[in-house]
Amino acid sequence: MSITKILQLSGIILLIIIQQVSAQEQKGDHPNLLIIHTDEHNLRTLGCYRATMTDEQAHMWGKGVVVETPNIDGLAEEGLLCTNWYATSPVCTPSRASMISGLYPIATGSHQNNLPLKDDLVSFAHILKENGYATSYVGKWHLDGYAKPGFEPVRNFGFDDNRYMFNRGHWKVLGEDETGPMVLDKISPEGWAVFNTNIANEKSFATDFLVDRTIEIMDRDKDTPFCVMLSLPDPHGPDKVRIPYSEMFMDISFKEPENAHSSEHGHPKWNKPDESKKVENFHKTGIAQYFGMVKCIDDNVGRIMDYLKAEGLDKNTIVVFTSDHGDLMGEHGKLNKGLPYEMSARVAFLLKYPGHVKAGKQIQKAYTMADFTPTILGLMGINHTSYTFHGMDASKDFTNSNSMIIDDRIVYLTNAFSRWVAAVNNRYKLVLSPVDKPWLFDLQEDPDEMINFYNNPKYSEIAKKMEDELYRQMEQYNEPLLKEGTIIQ
Predict the structure, then answer these.
(1) How many domains is the chain built from?
(2) What one-character DSSP code corresponds to residue 197?
(3) 305 found inside a domain
C-alpha cells in the first residue's frame, strides 16, 4: 500500500474518531432523564427518609418494624434528598398534572381525579422532544379521563412511545402479545378487577413487567438522548404483591400509629376518620403486603441501576425517584391520601446526577410538584424562558456546592373545590377550610400533627406570615375556594 493510501486511510479513521468523540461530547451536553414514579407511597417505608426523622417518627409501626430499601437509599447517598417536597394536591390526577406541566392543577384541566388534561397543555416531554430527545412513558398515567385500563392514549402529550402507558387501574398482572400489552387480571363486566397475584411471577407482576419494558426502551434509545418516565401503580392498593414478597413481612407484628386517634385538641373537621374496622384490618394484613410491594419496587430499582451502570449510562443519566402523593396508613384514623397531613401530602424526592449534584446533599426547603418541570429542564440545560410555569426553577439549589440547604420558602397546597387549602414551609403548616377554624401545625415541636398552635400568642407572627402568603398564592394561582368566596379572609 502506498504512503498516499495509508495517509488517506489514516485521515478517514481520524475523522471517524473525531466525529465519534464529538457525538459523545454532544450527548454529554444532553443528559438522559429517567423518572421512577410510584403511587401512594408513604415516606416512612424508605430508609433514607427514616434517617431524617426522630426514632419515634421513623418507627411509627413499632421499633424495628421497617422495610429495607437499599437501592432507593442509594440514590440519596449518591445524589440529593429533598426533605420537604409536596404534592400540589395529594390525589393522583392533579399531582401528576402539576408534575408534567409546572402548573397548579386548576390550570391544567385535571384538578380532580379522572378529569382529562387540556388539549393545549405543554408537558416537559413536549419540550424535551423539541430539543432532540427520544421520549417514552411506561405505566400508569391517570390524565386522560375515565378510560380503564386505556392503553396507549391517542393524546400522548409529548411522549412519543406510549405503548405501555395505561390511563387507570392498579393492575397486578400484565402481559403482551402481537396486539400489544394487556391486563391479565380478571375484569368483571362492570369493569372491576379481580386481582390474583398467585398467577403473577417475576415477568408478569406489574412492577417487574413495567421495569422490563423500561430497560428495553432505554437499551433501544441509549445512543441518543432519552427521557423515560416509569410510573409504577404500586404501592397503591389493592394491597397485594407476588410471592416471595407477599410472605416476607407476614410474621411481623404491626402496632397502631401513635397519632391514630384524636388528642385532647380533637381532630380538624376537614378530617373524617375512616371506619375503625377498616384501619384495623389494614394493620392486620394489608400493611405486610404494602411493605412487600415497596420491597419489590426497591429490588427493581436495583435492576435499573445495574443496567445503567453496565451500559455506561449511569454517569450521564439523571435519575429521579418520587411519588404522586403519600398514604396515611392509619395515622389520624385514615388510610390513603387527600388530606394536608405530612404522610398524605409530602412525598419522596431523590435525584442523582453524577458530577453535577453533590452526593449526599440534603435540601430542607419546601417545593411542590409544580416545581418539577422548570427545575428538571433547568438542570438539563434546556432553555425554558419562553414557557410559563407556576413553579420555580430550583436547579441552582441542586447544583450549588452546599451539602445542606435550609430555607423557609412557603408553598401552597390545594384540594381544589374541596375542604381545605394549606401553606407549608420546612417547619410550619397552616390549613384553612370553609368547614373549620384555621389549624397551624409546628412540625418540629409536634411532628404527629395533633396540636393546633393557631391561637397560641407565641405563634401569632408566624401564623400571620403563613396566612398572608397563602392568600397571596391562592390569588395568584386562581384557587377555586377563594374565587367562590368559601374561604373568607
Answers:
(1) 1
(2) G
(3) yes
Per residue in 308-338, pLDDT (tens digit) is 999 999 999 999 999 999 999 999 999 999 9
What is the structure's pLDDT at 418? 74
The reply to whether omega before 235 is within 30° of 0 (cis) is yes
CA distance 454 to 462: 9
Q: Closest by alpha carbon to 231, among 298, 327, 307, 167?
A: 167
DSSP designation for 121: P
**Angle at Cα 366 formed by Cα 363 and Cα 368, nearest 5°?**
115
Residue 345: exposure state from Cβ atoms within 10 A (0-12, 13-18, ≥19): buried
What are 410-452's pLDDT values in tens digits? Answer: 999 998 767 899 999 999 999 999 999 999 999 999 999 999 9
Q: Which residue blocks in 380-446 are alpha helix, DSSP H? A: 395-399
Q: What percentage of the chain reaches a pLDDT higher than 70?
A: 92
Residues comprising the chain, all counted? 489
Residues of the domain holding 58: 30-409
- For residue 41, the domain's CATH number is 3.40.720.10
CA distance 292 to 342: 22
Angstrom distance (rounded) from CA 479 to CA 299 = 40
* Strand ranges, E, within 308-414: 317-323, 346-347, 349-352, 361-368, 404-406, 411-414
Lookup: cell for 52? 431524617
Does residue 256 belong to any structural domain of this protein?
A: yes
Could you give the CA distance from residue 99 to residue 221 in angstroms, rounded to a whole number? 24
Residue 166: inside a domain: yes
User: Mapping DSSP to helix (H, G, I), strand (E, B) and coil, where does residue 166 land?
Assistant: strand
Instruction: Report whether 328 contacts 341 (CB < 8 A).
Output: yes
Using the 8-state DSSP alphabet, how is residue 44 labeled? G
Whole-number Å distance between alpha carbons of 390 and 191: 37
* Cell numbers found for residue 61: 409501626
Q: How many CB atoms lie within 10 A of CB 249?
A: 20
Is 111 within a domain? Answer: yes
Task: Give the span between the Cα atoms of 451 and 442, in whole angstroms.
Answer: 8
Question: Rounded to an integer, what distance in angstroms lies between the CA atom of residue 250 and that of residue 269?
Answer: 35
